[in-house]
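The freezer alarm interrupted the setup, so I double-checked each line after restarting. Inputs confirmed:
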Amino acid sequence: MEISQNLSLMHLILQASIPVKIVMGLLLLASFMSWWHIFIKMFSLKRAAQNTDSFEKEFWAGAEVNMLYQRVSQNREAAGELERIFEAGYSEFLKLRRQAGTSVNVTMDGARRAMRAAFQREMDGLEAHLSFLATVGSVSPYVGLFGTVWGIMLAFQNLASVAQATLAQVAPGIAEALIATAMGLFAAIPAVVAYNRYTSDVDRLSTRMETFMEEFSNILQRQAAKSAA
Amino acid sequence: MNPALLRDDLAAGLLAAAVHVFFAVLLVVGVSWQIHNPQPVMADLWEALPPPPRPVPRAAPQPRPVPPPQAKPEPEPDTRAADIALERKKRAEQEKLKRQQAAEAEKKLREAKLKELAEAKRRADLQREEADLQRRMLEQSMAAESGQLRARAAAAQRASEVDKLVARYQDMISARIRGNTRLPDNLPGNPQVEFRLSVLPSGDIVRITLTKSSGNAAFDQAVLRGIEKSSPLPLPADRAAMEKFRDLDIKHKARE
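Predicted 3D structure, all chains:
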């Protein structure tokens, strides 16, 4: 056993045993994926908030509902979440009103269901991959700990075959093992922070959408009652 | 897929890679990893200083001058008026005077003799001292001249002593290993295995490396176990001899 050891980072990683290396690779992958999703979510949530803001502003500024509907239905791909909900509800409302003999209640229920369905779909899109961040945040410390425990076990096993045990013989093994824990924490901390941040963002967006749905239902109901009368 | 979303994904991937590269650079550059190995420091401890301390010539004690004996004051002659008594007394006095003079002369003679003796003694002392000093100076110059020669001779003698000591301890070590080795049964021939040991000054074996296998793994293992069992090895107390045992090559034959 060599007593003088290089303790540089690359040396420690390359010296590690195969299971520890696998653990390190997994953690690096998890870290990369979680950062990727962090940035994707950052962009998509920012855009969703911007779209919602601008649509709400436009809507409450007193724009004509029919014109808004025309614009949104022509350009569905570029529409924001709230616009799509609005579009789904209003199109269902128009269809039901065109059918003769449907009561106001039935029309309103249909429109509300359509909006609820669109809302669920949008929420699903917004919440996608958040569970991945949660998983990385909760599991990768354990994975890193496993790598560390394995590395320390090996270090002590090597020590057992040496007559004279010195610190210099255990230290490199423990250092290389502890790198696994460090990597696990490195992957977990941003994932947990991002998960908490994004969940609250999605919650706030969903509250705004639900509020809008209720208010829009009221507007539709008024319209339906007016036309029925 | 939406081209805007695809662009987002790409940008996110690049950013994630950038974050990892940033952290890796921070780790490699920012943290000063322990890369250099401090070289072991060698220090020689001397049990005795090499040049013997020079004898300082001591000044011989000066002979103490003998104090001159003081002359006794002469008693005053008694003058009492009485004829016969005076006559007798006169005679007696004369006799006494004579005796006194004789005693005085004798005393003087003795004193002179004593003085002479002391003088002679002092002179002899001085002479002896001088001779001593000369001899010592001569010795010193001789020692200075032959110091190197003598040192070389001493070193050679010491080296041979160390060699003898080393040989004796090598025999002791190999005997000990032989005693601790249990040879495997049915060992064919007389195989020889070579090990290299790293030994601490305490005699503990730090490392055993097989430098030349005998070709018989069981025998190698048996000798290895024997060496392990022999730790700590008997080492000479002499430092120079002990140095020879730091890296010890051991050839072990199954039978003598």
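Quick read of the result. Strands of chain B lie at 192-199, 205-212, 247-253.
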